Amino acid sequence: MPATRPNIVFFFTDDQRFDTIAALGNGAIQTPHMDRLVRSGVAFTQAHIPCGTSGAVCMPSRAMLHSGRTLFRLAGEGQEIPAAHAILGESLRQTGYVTFGTGKWHNGRASYARSFSCGAEIFFGGMGDHWNVPAYDFDLSGRYAATCPFVPQPETSNALAYRACNHITAGKHSTDLFVDAARQFLRERDGARPFFMYVSLMAPHDPRTMPEKYLRLYDPARIELPGNFMPEHPLDTGALRVRDELLAPLPRTPHDIRRHIAEYYAMISHLDDGLGRLAAALREAGELDNTIIVFSGDNGLALGQHGLMGKQNLYDHSVRVPLIFSGPGIPQGARSRALVYLSDIFPTLCELAGLDTPESVEGKSLASCFTDPKCRLRDTLYLAYGNSIRGVRNERYKLIEYACGASQLFDLAQDPLETQNLAAGAAVNETVSAMRRTLCRLADEWGDAQHSTGHEFWNRRAELRSHQASSV
Predict the structure, then answer these.
(1) Which domains does the chain have, with CATH numbers?
(2) Who contacts 456 (Cβ-Cβ below 8 Å, separation ≥6)?
């Protein structure tokens, strides 16, 4: 174990797509503090989630992150992480870290209590009004009320108060609320021990509201439509009527999509400012040089690409996320194209902190990829959404299979926007067959068919199993 263990700050965003950082190629967005992080660390440009078992993709995504487990080995869709599965914060806490958690926690109150020795402004939920966040104060006993209803209180002049949560901070944006709580922790912490600080935002999740000055940065009329914009999705994904897909009318129009993208970018520029304020607080506390900063998001978002709005699909815009490591011992300005999952963060941080990775963790440490641009930890990624979509990708191709019977094959090297479906071409039949064999093999390895959603998908697409008999 290192003589001086590094502090760890995990800055986690909600619904931020992989291609929303200027330094990684998006010249239309303003993200100076993320850009500085990219220049000072290692950016994993092929970081993914597998997607999810339900429309609330962020819940299993966060459970995979905190437990290091794979998608179908999470109880209750990740709503509560089982006691048998180690949790990142809990593991660091048991080895002497002060663990602080603020912001969105979507994996159960007991899991939060196991993870953190202190915290503030805790949001137990999936989404909400950014300007009126029902937040809990930290309770060392872990006894957090299960519900947070609005209750009129006559003694407070008919103001709406919360009976089950501690307070509501009206008029302060969620990003500022959580970042300020983290900054306060830095001012009051026990300086004798290393800390793990988990700052989990609600942004840029809808409803997309932010301080006006950030919205003024982006004129919808000047926003370019994505190259894979479509008015409607061409086939039945099994998820075309979930909540996210109802946020814009059908058919999608250029006007609506430009407005949504402008608001999305504005929220990201606002949270980028929060990242900068937190980095400044670390510098003022004299801790920046001994702090590993991890920046990532829980899933992506379509916003008009392929005619979709949400994240309930297996296209790159929804399953690829930003992932950056920066800090002591980490190379500066490096990029890795290794195929990785968010579940790999847990063992990576264990290695960087000189700790043993718990046996229940299934992810792989990314530390070997920091200095080796050719590092590859896995050849393929398994992808799945609900009971209607399954997919697999390697460094070049992605195969997507739908319960409705449709198939898509994309050559990601030639077609990164996933617009040219090659599945029916005679020249790629062997590629499709090989990837279907891999799909079936990984489905078994992940325990997909034993899960309720997987069982339904594989029953509807039983013919795919005919590829399983042959080796890849």
Answers:
(1) 7-369 (3.40.720.10), 381-467 (3.30.1120.10)
(2) 387, 403
